[in-house]
Amino acid sequence: MSALQPQPRPYSRIHWRTPITMVILLTILIGGTWWGWNSLTSSSEQNCVEQKLPNNRLVPKQIVVNVYNGGARAGTAQRTAEELRKRGFNVRKVANEPSGDKTEVVAVRGAAADSPEVRLVMGQLNQKPETVGDNRGDHTVDLVVGVKYNRLNTKGVPSIAVPADSTVCLPSIRPTQPIPSGENPN
């Protein structure tokens, strides 16, 4: 019987091609992910459109409002949003307060605390709101209804005067498109 002899070690050669290929592919993957995320999160659309207003009046159909429930009973934000729609406002979102903060009565947030769109939304309220200017670029208005919120004013302000020959930055309003009959929406 012969004893097992150790096998001679084959010529050891380091294969550099595989690790280099993996590093290049990983770099391409990370770069593509970064580019895709930036493309997704940064809108190439203009946030608002500078316009001269006819008759120097800002009307509800030119404003986009998000209505949030900041501690009120369930359904309060939905009822408020429906009433604002009846008055001509474009309601984009109805949801709970995104930050989760509770509001005592009512809060109105917009690009500036004294901007025309914020003043027009404030004109719909029968309670004094807390106004917050947050320098948003899209000029939408957030209405946050709180615990002690009652309802909208029965006769809200129909329009707000703006200085003559001034331009106002208004949000882009995308009309909803109906589905043609006979086409599957899915």
Distance, first to last CA: 76 Å
Order of SSEs: HEEEHEEHEEEE
Strand content is 15-25%
Largest sheet: 5 strands, mixed
Question: What would the average pLDDT be, to the nearest integer?
Answer: 83
Tally of separate helices: 3
The unreliable regions are: none
Strand line-up in the sheet with most strands: 4-3-7-5-6
Overall form: elongated
The level of helicity is: 10-25%
What does this structure look like?
This protein is an alpha/beta fold and 186 residues long. 23% of the residues lie in helices and 22% in strands. It has helices at residues 17-41, 76-86, 116-122, and strands at residues 48-52, 57-58, 64-69, 90-96, 106-110, 130-133, 141-145, 160-161, 167-171. It has a five-stranded mixed β-sheet with strand order 4-3-7-5-6, covered by helices on one side. It has a two-stranded antiparallel ribbon with strand order 1-9. The chain has a two-stranded antiparallel sheet with strand order 2-8. Helix 3 (116-122) links the parallel strand 5 (106-110) and strand 6 (130-133). The longest helix is centred in the N-terminal third of the chain and has 25 residues, at 17-41. The chain is elongated, with a radius of gyration of 29 Å. The model has no long low-confidence stretch (mean pLDDT 83).
Please outline what is shown here:
With 186 residues, this protein is of the alpha/beta class. It is 23% helix and 22% strand.
